[in-house]
Amino acid sequence: MDDIKIQNPIKSPVETAISRKPELSSNSGSFGKMLTDSIQQVNQLQVEADSSINDLSTGKQPDIHRTMIAMEKASISFELLMQIRNKVVSAYDRIMRMPI
What is the pLDDT of residues 77-92, one digit of tens each? Predict the structure, then answer.
């Protein structure tokens, strides 16, 4: 049996955004841009999973494994995004409750 090798290791959108070096600029939108980029990457994974499902159902792609991998990547990245959103909302609430 042939050895299975991972050609493209899976990276989450947030891990990709965090691993980049921050750009030093006077623009304060770097966090917003990082967040927008992460949301777009999660959306792209969702679109790829939907496309893979459609290809599988129409017979264009006979490999169910690729479809399942695409679905899991989309699911995990979406769950990670929701956890990050929950943490950001929680941090915002804690800051709002601080006495001035």
Answer: 999 999 999 999 999 9
